[in-house]
């Protein structure tokens, strides 16, 4: 069986090819055991992921907002204007970004 470890903090987020990785500090483990983990590994600590997004100004926060909207709306493709407002992006009046 797979043993589970508790995440103390998410220290960094990076994109690698087509996936996102998270640099994890494990609770009660020395920092020499910090490791890069996949999205599946951080599903139970999304508040720490969000804290890292805010602290590092990571664009991954848009993924978090979109996931939350999908759950709240029970929709695969939530309203783009609502998503952009929640993620802090302002759509120009002419609708174009230059």
Automatic annotation (TrEMBL):
InterPro entries: Chromo-like_dom_sf (IPR016197), Chromo/chromo_shadow_dom (IPR000953), Chromo_domain (IPR023780), Chromodomain_CS (IPR023779). SUPFAM superfamilies: Chromo domain-like (SSF54160). Pfam families: Chromo. Residues 5-49 form the Chromo domain. Its main location: nucleus. GO terms for cellular component: chromosome; nucleus. The keyword Nucleus applies. Keywords: Nucleus. The keyword Nucleus applies. It is found in: Nucleus. This is Chromo domain-containing protein.
